[in-house]
Design brief:
The protein is α/β, with parallel strands linked by helices and 314 residues long. It contains eleven helices and nine strands. Helix 6 packs parallel to helix 10. It is globular.
Length: 314
């Protein structure tokens, strides 16, 4: 699909499940983007209320850029995201969540950034996080931490990614913009490197890590992306007492990162250094899980204050 006079075509992939109101709000923002040369694909992961989702799609059916697919069975979050990137025909690709918000210039600013920098594999805008699971909600602006992931070499970028604490939002790079061919390759390589078949979790798919191995991150220094942490947000449920479960997730995430390091264009010394850092990350992460969920998790009021203190100093 060629961008023609409108510039490069951008595919926006919208995965949705059981949130028709969120889907409606996301489609309002995407269809009204200042950048018009879009392919918009919605993949409904077999929502319980199919009629409600179809009603939302019908409201936007006059937009010829929109295509709707309903999965016959629930694929799981990972494979639904993968489906969208495999379907993409645009030059660039982004995922748009049905529980987050983007400003109307979001796509335009990222296209301009990525188009002008041939070395870049990810373009991301500044962003903030609104944790609505806290009462009152906690809002944190995390843009400056994106700059901490930039680097001239793959070794620098991967090292910085491993060392950056998870709560500073490094995983949010997944919501940036990518050259379509590269993000498709990254996703396929992640799946090929795991031994878990279709039983995939996000820890198996370190797309951001792979994309940083391929090339550089560019940042648009404007807050154009707003993350909403909701009680129903994927990945935010059922963690209260599952220390053992979280340990397994950490193990799988570490295995996936090691696979990226083994496959990346690095010297032997760089590879060894990154493997040591990943082992340290594994130890530190398990210690944090045990401390937070094994002890503080029993006292919700204390957990809330810990979260507040962490974000105050972020």
């Amino acid at each position: 699909m060629s961008g023609g006079r409108g510039g490069p075509t951008v595919t926006v992939g919208i995965p949705t499940f059981n949130r028709p109101e969120g889907l409606r709000e996301t489609l309002k923002r995407i269809t009204n983007q200042t950048y018009r040369n879009l392919e918009i694909i919605v993949s409904d992961n077999c929502s319980n209320d199919e009629a409600a989702v179809r009603q939302v799609i019908h409201e936007f059916s006059q937009d010829p850029r929109l295509r709707y697919v309903r999965q016959e069975k629930n694929l799981g979050s990972v494979l639904n995201f993968h489906f969208l990137v495999k379907q993409a025909k645009g030059d660039f690709f982004i995922w748009a969540a049905d529980d987050d918000e983007v400003e109307l210039t979001y796509v335009e600013k990222l296209v301009n950034c990525l188009s002008q920098r041939s070395h870049a594999t990810i373009a991301m805008s500044g962003y903030d996080v609104n944790d609505t699971m806290a009462n009152p909600p906690i809002r944190t602006e995390l843009t400056r931490h994106l700059y901490g992931l930039k680097g001239a070499t793959a070794f620098e970028r991967l090292k910085k990614y491993i060392l950056q604490p998870d709560h500073l939002g490094k995983s949010r790079l997944a919501w940036g913009m990518f050259p379509t061919g590269l993000i498709r390759k990254a996703f396929a390589d992640c799946i090929a490197a795991t031994k878990h078949g279709d039983n995939l979790i996000w820890g198996d798919i370190p797309m951001e890590f792979r994309m940083l191995a391929y090339g550089q991150l560019e940042v648009v220094d404007e807050i154009l992306f707003h993350v909403n942490l909701l009680p129903s947000s994927d990945g935010k449920q059922g963690f209260s007492g599952a220390v053992g479960k979280l340990f397994k997730i950490i193990d799988r995430s570490v295995d996936a990162q090691r696979a990226v390091v083994r496959e990346s264009d690095l010297t032997t010394q760089e590879r060894k250094a990154l493997m040591r850092l990943i082992s340290w990350y594994k130890f530190k992460s398990k210690l944090q899980v045990f401390g937070y969920y094994g002890v503080i998790g029993r006292f919700p009021w204390l957990a809330r204050w810990v979260k507040k203190i962490v974000f105050w100093f972020t």
